[in-house]
Design goal:
Bound molecules: zinc ion
Strand content: 35-45%
Oligomer: single chain
Order of helices and strands: HHEEEEEEE
Distance between the termini: 37 Å
Shape: globular
Strand order of the largest sheet: 3-4-5-6
């Protein structure tokens, strides 16, 4: 798919989104609102069902059991898999 000239003019590398990403990930995540990719249900993260394992946790939808959030720690890395979420909304700083 070709991008329009206007869209190309606004293209920067990922560093340009660093401030927004820091704002999005440095918040209380249990109050974030997530939409399940399996059934479309909307819930706050605290309402998901946590299944722990030695490397981290899987948070599943209470309605359809889809793995909405997977988080794991390996050494000095945290892995975050959100493919079970359509989107995740956090409150922006005022
Ligand atoms: Zn669901």
């Amino acid at each position: 798919m070709e991008r329009s000239g206007n869209e190309t003019d606004r293209r920067l590398d990922g560093n340009a989104a660093g401030g927004l990403l820091a704002e999005a990930f440095c918040v209380e995540m249990t109050t974030a609102v997530v939409v399940c990719a399996g059934c479309g249900a909307e819930a706050v993260v605290a309402e998901l069902l946590r299944y722990g394992h030695e490397m981290g946790a899987i948070l599943r939808c209470a309605g359809c059991d889809t793995a909405v959030v997977r988080i794991a720690r390996t050494g000095d890395r945290l892995w975050l898999d959100l493919r079970g979420a359509v989107n995740l909304r956090v409150s922006a700083a005022p």
